[in-house]
UniProtKB/TrEMBL annotation, chain A:
SMART domains: AAA. It is found in: Cell membrane. GO terms for molecular function: ATP binding; ATP hydrolysis activity. Residues 3-239, 255-499 form the ABC transporter domain. PANTHER family: CARBOHYDRATE TRANSPORT ATP-BINDING PROTEIN MG119-RELATED, GUANOSINE IMPORT ATP-BINDING PROTEIN NUPO. SUPFAM superfamilies: P-loop containing nucleoside triphosphate hydrolases. PROSITE patterns: ABC_TRANSPORTER_1, ABC_TRANSPORTER_2. The keyword Nucleotide-binding applies. It is a peripheral membrane protein. CDD domains: ABC_Carb_Monos_I (cd03216), ABC_Carb_Monos_II (cd03215). It comes from the Bacteria. This is ABC transporter ATP-binding protein.
Amino acid sequence: MKLELIGITKRFGTFVANDHIDLVVEPGQVHSLLGENGAGKSTLMNVLYGLYDPTEGEIRVDDERVSFKGPGEAMAAGIGMVHQHFMLVPVFTVAENVALGNETTRGAGLLNLSRTRERIREISDQYGFAVDPDAVVEDLPVGVQQRVEIIKALVRDAEVLILDEPTAVLTPKETDELLGIMGQLTKDGKSIVFISHKLREVKAVSHVITVIRRGKVVATADPSASTTELASLMVGRSVSLSLDKAPAVPGEVSFRVRDLVVQAANGQRVVDGLSFDVADGEILAVAGVQGNGQTELTEAILGLQDHVSGSITLGGTELVGRSVKEIISAGVGFVPEDRSVEGLVGTFSVAENLVLNRYDAAPFARGLSMSPAAVAQNADEKIAEFDVRTQSASSPAGTLSGGNQQKVVMARELSRPLKLFIASQPTRGVDVGSIEFLHRRIIAERDGGTPVVIVSTELDEVLELADRIAVLYRGRLMGIMPGTVSRDVLGLMMAGMSADEALAQVHDVQGGNL
Amino acid sequence: MSPQDENPPAPASGNSASSRRAARENSEQDERRVQEATETADGELPPPAAEATAPVPEPETDPESDPQERSLLYRVMTGSALVAFLSVVLSLILGGILIAVTDPEVARASSYFFTRPLDTLSAAWSAASNAYVALFQGSVINVRGTSFTSVIYPLTQTLTVATPLICAGLGVALAFRAGLFNIGAQGQILIGATFAAWVGFTLHLPAGVHLLLVVLAGMVGGAVWAGLVGVLKARTGAHEVILTIMFNYIATNLVLYFLSTPAFQRPGSTNPISPQLDSTAVYPLLLGSAFRLHWGFVVAVVATVFVWWLLNRSTVGFELRAVGANASAARTAGISVSRGYILAMAIAGALAGLAGVAQVSGTEQVLTSGVAASFGFDAITVALLGRSSPWGTFAAGVLFGAFRAGGVTMQASTGTSIDIVLVVQSLIVLFIAAPPLVRALFRLPVPGAESTGKRGKKNKGTPTRTPASTGAAA
């Protein structure tokens, strides 16, 4: 099936989200859409999937003009979408999920799941998905859940699959598997629209790359183009993807974690006996797939977790058992992993958010009375220093873009003398231009002699920033590696292999070329 | 209303945690995308004008991106002033229709509607307009008054009735800003009134000191009563709505019990009515003996100023608002959420206690089980209409005071039941709770609306949403 988007324009009021976008997806192709957050990729796909009416332009399927009034019609026309957030009912089985919305019945409204099961097995065998139709979805790993989503689309005879940032939630290994599946699907004549901003993956799997910037197609690139080239196209200026950073000059070890155990409410050990040190002027990156104890680790350091045992010392002072306020006053800067939930109060102004944990200290308050003037002055300074793009200091922080929200959080945490800096997912959802800036600030903090702990699920980020890398798997430390370790070794460790095993395996495969 | 109390998800079931996170990211991204697109990607600031004029289609209040900030209740309680105003107008119109429909004159005229339809219409018009004129004259200025006193008397009546409404409404509003839905103003008024009254008729102290003690006792009573709810919520996670409703029952029956004990009864009497408060324990009249308006109103004004300062200018208010708007972020910033809950409830209770004082030291001067009337429940409406802002609550309190004061005159002079006032009040709540309805009726633009007519339509959970009604806390 050939899918064409011709001159698609989507306006919201006077704002143009998509500006005359042309796109041709040939059968058997992986067509990548590359662009920063907010470039208009999602809007375009929502137009294609029938969620938005295009303001102008048309969609053609096999040279015939179509218009979709909703996802149902798009699906009927052979377009399937796998959302970044899976649309699965966790307590249902795979078969039930696949059947949902497309149930076959045998009279009297009785479900006929055996037919669905059959189809799942067929598809699963055909593409080597290894999905059991009777497994309950919530018990499945994320990668398999994603395959269930793909099966859902295939069962409905999708010819064009839209994959929206499919690798964001996957381990490196699962990502490779997904890329393999995409290859098979295209071999079979299906076409795939692959939305991503991860250049490596895009290059690995695409046949054609369309780069979108500010709602316009700025280039059609060949997968053989270099990552730097693609990044420049995406951002619109030359970007240095590798950060020039001086080697770390580790000083004294002032931050120590010993036998740290964090228990969840159900008694499960979500952080299981961690011990590590971070020296002054050193960045320790904590790598791992989302949900392997990183969140709890950082929260335990800040005193946000309840059932913590073991010891966390900063400059000889024990932090376990102290209140968040005491720990913050002890000089811990903290960038939480989800800025809109933990980092910012969305309805508060940018200025208020910039003093969210210092509102009661001089010069922002005298006694119980706050000084709006001091708060505003601080805001003006920080907004200028961190290049926060906001209409004004009194705009609600929730109206800022993700990158600018993150700059607000970073500005707040980095603008006081720190003895330890912890940042979780410091650049998640942040545009490429801001990533560079934020990374530089983190390195500057390190060079100022602060021990820094970075938690990131993005290997690129980990490798770029880290002086040493700790890998977490199911709350346990798989090992601490030097910052120069290879991606493959990290990938294996993130999947639960010990450092030695991972090194040995990579060694075997590559014949010693680390 | 308090999902913030749950622990972060356990990681081993990693899937749900990460997919949820992905969801968040996804919706975040979606929310951001157009806004970010207004920035240039090439690292230069766009011309400021361009940025300012580009309307951002995604409203900042996204009900999914942050459930606790964006709960329906939150949006209702902090909705736009225009919607509040229009809700009042609409309710008055509907109330007018109701007055006309239930009017006996109109009923008579309508029996020959098809021969002389104008009779029905004019009867309907005069029924409604007479009732509202009476309502106005009973609550603002009596244009037929013969002396200055009688002309402005209705206004002072309004303010007198508004006093407890304002105080208790402030309590509800303040608690709400801290994320607590305080249904318990009724109980807090009762307990505050009980404390105040007891001090008022049991102790015999010099003027000034006595009144001061009475006021303090009322505040302490309310604060303790509501503070208990705060403590229970902070320590055990019990829901404050359930707690405050139950505490209302306890308070009502507790007062009944007190009134059955000799300590609260008049000597030689077993009636459930307390002795008269000492003259040193009552609020002096503000405008002389011709009016019932007492100093309690001044206290209400001071309370309004105080609450404004507390919320907008003090560190405590900063904490309370942060806890209310996003408890997770507050906790991460080192603000104690438990302390916030307890403090917010205690202050809210103290304010409701002031309402109790206004009753026992102002208008009633004795303690009965009916001393709180329905002020505690009306206070919720007042705070709702006032959008939980101090001065909004003040204005709404005055409006409701006018309804109550004018309703009496209306019933007396036109025979329209005072219940119509209740209906109007209830309609106001209904309309405020349904901003889209009001917007649709007046064809107001939806905040952050955009051109497509299709968003959110059976979207199967895809990242489109109906634009939420916006409105940051005032």
